Amino acid sequence: MTKPLTKDDYTPGGVTLHHDPDRLRRVTRALRAAGRNIALVPTMGALHEGHRKLIREAHVLQNTVVVVSIFVNPTQFGPNEDFERYPRTLEADVEVCREERVGLVFAPGVEDMYPAGGQVTVAPGPLGEQLEGATRPGHFAGVLTVVAKLLNIVQPNYALFGEKDYQQLTLIRRMVRDLNLPVDVVGVPTVREADGLALSSRNRYLSEDERAAATALSAALVAGAHVSGQGADAVLKAARDTLAAVPEVDLDYLELRAPDLGPAPENGDGRLLVAARVGTTRLIDNAPVLLGAGDE
Ligand SMILES: Nc1ncnc2c1ncn2[C@@H]1O[C@H](COP(=O)(O)OP(=O)(O)OP(=O)(O)O)[C@@H](O)[C@H]1O
Ligand SMILES: CC(C)(CO)[C@@H](O)C(=O)[O-]
Ligand code: BAL
After folding, report:
1. Are 190 and 198 within 8 A, CB to CB?
2. Is the ipTM here above 0.85?
3. Ligand 3 within 6 A of 76 CB?
4. pLDDT, tens digit, for every residue of 100-124?
5. CB 148 within 8 A of CB 122
6. N or C: which end of the chain has fewer CB within 10 A?
7. Is 164 in the pocket of ligand 1 (CB under 6 A)?
8. How many helices (DSSP H) and strands (DSSP E) are in the chain?
9. Is 163 marked as binding a ligand?
């Protein structure tokens, strides 16, 4: 039998902070048994307008209680990456969640998510070694493993992810399909600053000059999309030229792929993806392109 919920578990109209996975699972189970849908928005915190957009899209789904998880997942960071430096702003994040009418915030500690002795992980397959995975070995095994754990803890009807991390979204869709996970994955378009820069928690690492240079990533995507009717070579050249004009931008990759990140078609829908370092900060962005439509 499901134990009845108390105000410490869940308060309608308020936000309740949970740290313990088993207790949260009991709460979301009881809410589902009471006829509510659960929508999970996984994040690493330092919440910004991009996260707010995910939460708002979650509210659009019918009859949902929105759960935001906040966890800086150590297993998706390489040894020379910014795990220690990554912003941790739990109090402000809970306030954002209150403003956005989130019902439950799940902020586990590392020991809650990874008690000693864990051995089994999710293998992302070949796509996990390409693009982001080529520069960040093991990154997607860490992402998919923690997302699988979050899905199993929260057992949501829906899970929402941003297109800003397009390869992550693609791999999560694959995992859900390949492992028959009972959840609907909802992708949300990228929220941008007025000058085009994709919102990202890591933007706060940028100096004023780096912040100005960082607009080259989205500008390159726009330049590529602008000549998409001329085909793949023209798209890549236009994007590459835009990036090369800004010396502070150290390009990691610029690639044109199919929407599922397989090889790009000659004609039809494609996805243009870019990653670059600006100073010590690594940024990513991507955009859809319609290839060879023939009107350029
Ligand atoms: N600008 C954005 N628009 C839409 N969704 C976003 C945006 N930025 C992040 N998200 C999504 O929010 C979720 C949580 O991402 P995360 O907490 O890592 O934020 P982030 O800003 O991507 O941080 P990082 O600097 O680590 O890339 C992911 O699904 C991510 O794709
Ligand atoms: C999905 C995620 C929360 C897993 O740690 C993270 O990769 C992120 O914030 O995009
Ligand atoms: N936003 C994706 C998480 C990461 O860069 O580790």
Report:
1. yes
2. yes
3. yes
4. 999 999 999 999 999 998 999 999 9
5. yes
6. N
7. yes
8. 10, 9
9. yes
